[in-house]
Amino acid sequence: MKKIFFLLLLPVIVCAQQNETQLLRQFMTGQHDYFKFNGNVLVAKNGKMIYQQALGYADYNNKTILNDSSVFELASLSKQFTAMGIMILKEKKQLSYDDKVTKFFPDFPYDNITIRNLLTHTSGLPSYEDQFAKYWDHKKIAHNSDVLDMLKQRKDTLLFQPGTKWKYSNTGYVVLAAIIDKVWGMDYDKFMMKYIFQPLGMTHTFIYNTRRSTGKIPSNYALGFVYSDSLKKYTLPDDLPAYDYVYYLDGIVGDGCVNSTTGDLFKWEQALLSNKLVSAESTNEMLAPLVQTSPRDTTSFYGFGVMIQKTPTGKIISHTGGWPGYATSITHIEDKDETIILLSNNGTNEALLNAGIESILNDEPLLMPYDHKEVKIDPALLDRYVGKYNAFMTLDFIKKDGKLYRHRDGTPDIELKPESETKFFYCDGTDRQIEFEIDNTGKVIKTWFINTGQKGELQKLK
After folding, report:
1. What CATH number did the domain enclosing 356 receive?
2. Annotation says 76 is catalytic
3. Integer Cα distance of 166 and 164 in angstroms
4. 323 and 291 in one domain?
5. 297-318 pLDDT, tens per residue?
6. Does residue 16 belong to any structural domain of this protein?
7. Which of 43, 76, 197, 274 has the fewest CB atoms within 10 Å distance of its CB?
8. Does residue 122 lie within any of the structural domains?
9. Are 211 and 250 in contact (CB under 8 A)?
10. Residue 220: alpha-carbon gap to chain centroid
11. 307 and 453 within one domain
12. pLDDT at 11 > cutoff 90
């Protein structure tokens, strides 16, 4: 997980030494109160939890409140569990990472893809989501066997020759789950329960992907909600045609559908780092920077079901997950032995929250969230702020109808509302502000972009 660029720039404020737990609680409570974060958080240092909090609703419709044991759909965080299932079978000598998929499914249409290719997203398999969007009856629930059948029937050209490139592939992890079923003769969900969840005491963790097909909802479950612009409220994605795939893909596992809590995920991470399920040799390979994810980025890699970021002092091991209504992440900063787990059931951007939490743990400057109130100012003052600015991207501030807007080609203009004559906040509900420094003549001498409490300087383009 990469730190947001402006962490490296001039600080917003100089934070006094305060209790980390208090600061974490203040930061996340403010993100909930003012900027719509809804979900659960856990932070640990040196193998011990220092902060845990549940913020918001488990169900927006009936106003059920989240608690520390609320269960969330993990989405792609599930991949590390699928990878571990394969690793367990490898140590039981039931398969090899170099085995080809055709060993288990002779009619699989691609004869040169190995288990290792699937684990590391180097298979080149086509996206099953795209195939099912075009060719599947959206009134039917698809399962893993249907994904295999779709691949066999369509025989779409691989995106690239296996092992030559990296491209994130949900399809690959669906195939891995099918291999677990085939090799061990046990359904994926039962295998995960017997060989991973139960041995680690993950008592609130299970495979669950049948809400739409059976209508059964587990107890203490955090339902995922999305915000509807037309309805002006958070609603279940089931109610919106744009998200119909949450229904017809309801039966597919391996790439997602592990459901868990912050506490159980902390148990999982500690067990993983201490080799409780497999040997140190296997764990080390899983957490190694095996495949570079971009030719332009020499710090970002993928292991088995986890992202690996190389830093000057060590590794950051992480993964994120996203599904309509859910945004999840787990991050372990190796050299500092710090863990951040974020589970949101309203799709909050977890990357920016992660960066803010890291700033607190690193005793870096961070502007705490607060309620931004619009004030009236002389529209003539806005003229001095108009122009193009650059740091990590180009921001164009324009004036129209006596108001200041952030303009970017291809996206709607966002009004920047004044909270003073020199500071403006984005009107879209995000924790973003623009602050100008002026001299005694009214000339702008510095411009700052503040994002989720972190402040970086913008340079005005001539």
Report:
1. 3.40.710.10
2. yes
3. 7
4. yes
5. 999 999 999 999 999 999 999 9
6. no
7. 274
8. yes
9. yes
10. 22
11. no
12. no
361, 394, 428: which is the final residue of a domain?
A: 361
Q: What are phi and psi of 184, to 5 degrees?
A: -95, -10
Which of 213-217, 267-271, 409-413, 447-451 is the least confident region?
A: 213-217
Distance CA(192)–CA(215), nearest Å, equals 23
Instruction: Assess if residue 4 is contained within a domain.
Output: no
Same domain, 348 and 267: yes
Query: Is residue 222 within 8 Å of residue 328, measured between CB atoms?
Result: no
Task: Determine the structural domain holding residue 279 and report its residue range.
Answer: 72-361
Residue 308 lies in a domain: yes
Nearest CA to 347 out of 322, 376, 364 is that of 322
The pTM of the full predicted model, rounded to 2 decimals, is: 0.93
d(CA 435, CA 450): 8
Residues 6+ away with beta carbon under 8 Å from 95 = 86, 89, 104, 115, 179, 183
Map residue 30 onto helix, strand or coil. helix
383-412 CB burial, b ≥16 within 10 A, e <16: eebeeebebeeebbbbeeeebbbbeeeeee
Same domain, 252 and 385: no
For 236, the token pair is: 């279940």
E-assigned strand segments in 137-253: 206-207, 226-228, 233-235
Separation of alpha carbons 283 and 304, rounded Å: 9
Alpha-carbon torsion angle 349, 355, 360, 363, nearest 10: -170
Q: Tell me the helices (H) and strands (E) count for the chain, helix number first.
A: 12, 23
166 shares its domain with 288: yes
Task: List the catalytic residue out of 69, 70, 76, 145.
Answer: 76
With a cut of 60, say whether residue 200 has pLDDT above it.
yes
Same domain, yes or no: 217 and 304: yes
Least confident of 90-94, 150-154, 407-411: 407-411
Q: How far apart are CA 460 and CA 457, in angstroms?
A: 10
- Start-to-end CA span in the chain (Å): 33
| Cα angle, residue 350 at apex, residues 202 and 344 outer, rounded to 5° | 50
Burial degree of 124 (CB within 10 A; 0-12, 13-18, 19+): buried
Residues in the chain, overall count:
462
Amino acid at 359: S
457 has which bridge partners? 448
- Are 128 and 186 found together in one domain? yes
Q: Is residue 125 scored above 50 in pLDDT?
A: yes
157 and 130 Cβ atoms separated by less than 8 Å? no
Q: How many domains does the chain have?
A: 2
DSSP secondary structure letters along 375-443: ----GGGGGGG-EEEESSSEEEEEEETTEEEEE-TTS--EEEEESSSSEEEETTSSSEEEEEEE-TTS-
CATH classification of the domain holding 420: 2.40.128
